[in-house]
Amino acid sequence: YHFVWDDFADWYIEASKAAQNEAVLASCLETILKLAHPFAPFVTETIWQTLNWETGTLLAASRWPEIPGADKKLATQFEDIKTIVTEVRFIVKALQVRDVRLCYDNEPLLATNAELIKRLSRISEVAEGTEQGGVKLTQTSYNAWLDIDEKTAQKYLDELAGKRDATEASIGQLKARLDNKSYVDNAPAHIVQQTRQQLADTEVLLANLEQEQTRFTSSK
Hints:
Blueprint: H1 2-18, H2 22-36, H3 41-50, H4 72-95, E1 101-104, H5 108-112, H6 114-121, E2 125-128, E3 135-136, E4 144-146, H7 150-179, H8 181-186, H9 189-219
Parallel strand pairs: 1-2
Antiparallel strand pairs: 1-4, 3-4
């Protein structure tokens, strides 16, 4: 399920719209049908027959798929592209910006895959530049940055700081409530447990906010 939904649909099919490779898509679909057949025999057989994959054949009687040879270097490069695209999507969504340009300095991988990265990231352009600024990508070793003005980035950092302060205050209140022996002893057990869970959830939220603050501060 994870592969079909998160990898095949979200990455392979979307990537094929920018760089068509029908042979790879067909091979993936054929393999998916064969692997899923023992668990979903009727629907996979129906798909096999509907596509008329091989005239007069049954999916149930087909050969089990074999692992094909692959170019490890190209596979690693695509993983790098996924990392870049994922971070770009995150930053664009967090800052709520549009028509963003991704810049890079002397990075052949980004130059070769500019159109693919642009399409998957849903940004306006991927282009080479030498005047570094904006928001630098921190999840990849490639020298790339989003052409976003400092004022926009700082506004988001200020919002994060406000959320962090409010979260810390909430944690303080919850801890004070749990440190109150009268509350713990007299309140219904399920209410006390809810408070403990709320504290744990709020502490996770704080950790995420701090991580995001660090990420954006280091990328400026």
